[in-house]
Amino acid sequence: MEAHSLFVPGWGAPAALYSPGLPDEWRVLEPPSFAASAGSLAAYRRWLRIELRNQGRSTLGGHSMGGALAILAAAEAPQLVERLVLVAPAGLPLDKPIRKSMRDFVQQLGSGAYPRSVAASAAAAVARAPRAALTLAMEVRRLDLRRECARIRAAGIPVSVVGCLTDTLVTCDRTRLLADLLGGTYDELDSDGGHMWMLSEHERFAAMLA
Q1: Phi and psi torsions of 181, nearest 5°
Q2: Shortest CA distance to 185 belongs to which of 148, 157, 166, 165?
Q3: How many Cα atoms are found within 13 Å in the side-chain-facing hemisphere of 83?
Q4: What is the 3-class SS of 176-210, one letter each residue?
Q5: Quick one: pLDDT at residue 1?
Q6: Contact (Cβ atoms closer than 8 angstroms) between residue 109 and residue 161
Q7: Angle (CA) 198 200 206, round 5°
């Protein structure tokens, strides 16, 4: 069966945010809305499990929360995951204050880094279900996926992890540790873009995935 390449967006990020940087063989998934999920990480895990089963054995990529979801999916069904490509993945406890994270998110929306239509869509999703959005963010911040990483390592799934020196949310100490726990390779970028560096560096993002 032909392997697919699926990419899972981060918290609050529509699929369209990543599309400009994806190689042709990759498809970015559209996650459930905050309102539809009621802010439950379990709902996102169920959604990805169904997507993966429908597609069959796949290379699975993810950014931030999407990286954590990819780790969870691979630990649960390693037979369905050909390879993992994790960009600033959540999965270990985060200590950046939630208010600062939210402020940075709003600043990114207003900075022009997001295409206008994508920014409007992301902002509207939070506005429709602010409590669910916050609940999900808090749940992701508390994740500690060491046991899941051990299962993936034992299964022998190839893993690539990418960190960014200017990322103040999923910091390099966390990305390096996750790469070690997963038994994967690790690359560290020096980019001004921080946690969302791929928004302005499409070619670099595409090359990393390819």
Answers
A1: -65, -35
A2: 157
A3: 14
A4: HHHHHHHCCEEEEECCCCHHHHHHCCHHHHHHHHC
A5: 41
A6: no
A7: 50
Report which secondary-structure segment, H or E, holds 27: strand 26-28
3-class DSSP assignment, residue 35: helix
Domains recognised in the chain with CATH numbers? 4-209 (3.40.50.1820)
Regions in the chain scoring below 50 on pLDDT: 1
Q: What are the distances in angstroms from CA 55 to CA 48, 58, 68, 139?
A: 10, 7, 19, 27
> Which segments of the chain does DSSP mark as H helices, in order?
34-37, 41-55, 65-76, 98-111, 116-128, 130-141, 146-155, 172-182, 202-209
**pLDDT recorded at residue 110:** 67
DSSP state of 79: G
From residue 79, alpha-carbon distances to 50, 75, 107, 156 in Å are 14, 9, 40, 10
Please state, as a whole number, how many other Cβ atoms lie within 10 Å of the Cβ of residue 62. 28
Report the side by side order of strands in the sheet with 58-63. 26-28, 4-8, 58-63, 81-87, 159-164, 185-189
Q: How far apart are CA 70 and CA 129, in angstroms?
A: 24
